[in-house]
Amino acid sequence: MITNFDERGIDILFIISIITFFVLSILLKQTGMQWINIGILLIPALLLITIYRHAKRNFSDYLYYLVLDGLMMLSGLFLWLMNRF
Question: Which ranges of 1-85 would DSSP assign to H, the alpha helix?
Answer without folding.
Answer: 7-27, 35-57, 61-62, 69-84
